[in-house]
C-alpha cells in the first residue's frame, strides 16, 4: 500500500493498530486509516507548530483510560516546540474526515507543552504510566544539542536528564523501553541514545547519572530498536550502523 498526502518530505512514521501516523517537512502530522475499511485514507490532519517541519513523532501504545480508541500523539517541530494531541475514536475521526473534505483541517493543538530546553527537538517519546492515564505520562525529548529532557504532560515543567558530548549534537537516535526492576516492585524506563560516531549511551530515566556507554561500530547509528527480553526485568537493544552490521546487547534493570 502506498500512501500519498504530504506536500514535502516525510520525516517520521509510527505504526498503531489499524493506523499509520506520519510527520513531515510540510509541518503536518497525518493520521491514516489503513484498516480494510479505511483503505489508506487520511482521517486526521494535525497542524499546530508555528513554522517549519515536524521531525519528532511519538504515539501512545495504550488506550485512553476509558478504554476507547483514543491515542495520544506528541510532535516536536522545527519551531522548537512540543505539542500533544488526542486522536479520537473512529466516530470522531469520521467527523474529522468530513471536515477535511470541506477544507477544514484540524489546526489547533490540544496542548502546547512549552518546551524550554536547549535546541530543537529531534526525537520525542512518551513514557506512559501503568493506568493508561495520560496525565501521568512523561514526554522525553532529545534535541540537536545532544541533550535529553523529560517533561510532564500536565505542568509543562522540563528537566535535563542527560547531556551528551559533541558527538551527540546535530544528530541523535533515541528509543525507550519499559521493564520491571529485578530487585524491586517497580518499573524502570531504559533510554538509549546513539550518535554519529558509533557511540551509544543507555540509562534509566530515574537514575540518568548511572549510565552505560556502548560501541556500535565506527560510523553513524542509523536506528535503535528495543525488544522485550525473556525476563520482565531485561530487554535487547539493537543498533544498526553505517558498516551494515546490527549490534545487539542484553540489558537488565538490576535495581539498587
Automatic annotation (TrEMBL):
Source organism of this protein record: Merluccius polli (Benguela hake)
A Pfam family annotated for this UniProt entry: WD40
Family stated for the protein in its record: Belongs to the WD repeat WDR6 family.
GO BP term, example: tRNA methylation
Matches recorded under InterPro entries: tRNA_Anticodon_Mtase-Reg (IPR051973), WD40/YVTN_repeat-like_dom_sf (IPR015943), WD40_repeat_dom_sf (IPR036322), WD40_rpt (IPR001680)
SUPFAM superfamilies: WD40 repeat-like
Recorded superkingdom: Eukaryota
WD repeats: 3-33
Protein's name in the database: tRNA (34-2'-O)-methyltransferase regulator WDR6
Physiological role: Together with methyltransferase FTSJ1, methylates the 2'-O-ribose of nucleotides at position 34 of the tRNA anticodon loop of substrate tRNAs. Required for the correct positioning of the substrate tRNA for methylation. Required to suppress amino acid starvation-induced autophagy. Enhances the STK11/LKB1-induced cell growth suppression activity.
Main location: cytoplasm
Family matches, as SMART domains: WD40 (SM00320)
Gene: WDR6_0
PROSITE patterns reported for this sequence: WD_REPEATS_2
Protein's cellular compartments: Cytoplasm
One cellular-component annotation, GO: cytoplasm
Amino acid at each position: 500500500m502506498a500512501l500519498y498526502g504530504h506536500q514535502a518530505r516525510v520525516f517520521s512514521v509510527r505504526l498503531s493498530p489499524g493506523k499509520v501516523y506520519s510527520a513531515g517537512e510540510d509541518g503536518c502530522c497525518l493520521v491514516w486509516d489503513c484498516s480494510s475499511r479505511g483503505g489508506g485514507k487520511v482521517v486526521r490532519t494535525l497542524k499546530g507548530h508555528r513554522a517549519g517541519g515536524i521531525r519528532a513523532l511519538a504515539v501512545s501504545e495504550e488506550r485512553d483510560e476509558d478504554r476507547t480508541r483514543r491515542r495520544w500523539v506528541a510532535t516536536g517541530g522545527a519551531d522548537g516546540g512540543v505539542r500533544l494531541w488526542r486522536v479520537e475514536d473512529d466516530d470522531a475521526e469520521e467527523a474529522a474526515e468530513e471536515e477535511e473534505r470541506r477544507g477544514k483541517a484540524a489546526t489547533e493543538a490540544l496542548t502546547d507543552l512549552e518546551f524550554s530546553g536547549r535546541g530543537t527537538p529531534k526525537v520525542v517519546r512518551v513514557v506512559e504510566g501503568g493506568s493508561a492515564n495520560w496525565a501521568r505520562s512523561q514526554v522525553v525529548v532529545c534535541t540537536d544539542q545532544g541533550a535529553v529532557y523529560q517533561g510532564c504532560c500536565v505542568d509543562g515543567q522540563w528537566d535535563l536528564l542527560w547531556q551528551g558530548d559533541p558527538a551527540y549534537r546535530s544528530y541523535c537516535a533515541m528509543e525507550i523501553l519499559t521493564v520491571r526492576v529485578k530487585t524491586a516492585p517497580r518499573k524502570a524506563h531504559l533510554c538509549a541514545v546513539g550518535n554519529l560516531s558509533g557511540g551509544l549511551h543507555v540509562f534509566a530515566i530515574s537514575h540518568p547519572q548511572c549510565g552505560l556507554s556502548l560501541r556500535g561500530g565506527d560510523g553513524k547509528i542509523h536506528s535503535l530498536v528495543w525488544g522485550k527480553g525473556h525476563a520482565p526485568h531485561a530487554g535487547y537493544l539493537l543498533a544498526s550502523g553505517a558498516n551494515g552490521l546490527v549490534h545487539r546487547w542484553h540489558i537488565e534493570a538490576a535495581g539498587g
